């Protein structure tokens, strides 16, 4: 089976970087992810990454504790930049050229988000990591991933998570839960399936971007997904 996708948008949740810790970043886990990304980059596949921040701070939680929601969301966005820089460091240790671009300007540590420049980096074989979400409160990094995927004309959005796909019930509580191999965007939206938030799904639907949901903790899964192997669940038209 050959390479199916030439330009991918990989969404990594903050939790994915946390491993088995209850907070923060597990360096061993980040190094493992970097190795997988490095392997794919070496094949010439163009890789853009959107990182979450839930391992450090979530706006919704801050708001629930009494904070102003927008302020809390900005803190969440800044948390994603820490993850982005950590991942950049791990990739560069492996010799992979990278650029971090942030949606909130912090030019001492990263480039500002400039769409055409991001595409140019990808064409030159650099892994582009998008930090600070979309730059807007009340959004998520899942929606950011869908937005950036559309902006850079990615062939696919990879939603790398801790479960091996989308189920018709919670597999942790229901032993009869079945995993979907494929789903339509409309099915996900009408049944409120927990793939990504509805804004992200709607953006992918409107722009015809397939979503592949798979378990990141299985070594080699990013490569399998790039090769179009049937891992996890694919959401499409
Ligand atoms: N966030 C935001 N706007 C965005 C993206 C993220 O306000 O466009 C904030 C929001 O508070 C969110 C936090 O950043 O809770 C971390 O992102 P997210 O929860 O999506 O991370 P993940 O669940 O992927 O770890």
Automatic annotation (TrEMBL):
GO molecular function, one term: ATP binding
Residue sites binding ATP per the record: 11-14, 54, 58, 161, 167, 170
UniProt main location, coarse: cytoplasm
GO cellular component: cytoplasm
EC number: 2.7.4.22
Biological or metabolic pathway of the protein: Pyrimidine metabolism; CTP biosynthesis via de novo pathway; UDP from UMP (UMPK route): step 1/1
Localization, UniProt: Cytoplasm
Domain of life: Bacteria
Activity regulation, short description: Inhibited by UTP.
Residue ranges of domain Aspartate/glutamate/uridylate kinase in the record: 7-215
GO terms (BP aspect): 'de novo' CTP biosynthetic process; UDP biosynthetic process
Class of this enzyme: transferase
Subunit structure, interactors included: Homohexamer.
Family in the record: Belongs to the UMP kinase family.
Summary of the function given for this chain in its UniProt record: Catalyzes the reversible phosphorylation of UMP to UDP.
Protein name as catalogued: Uridylate kinase
Organism: Phormidesmis priestleyi ULC007
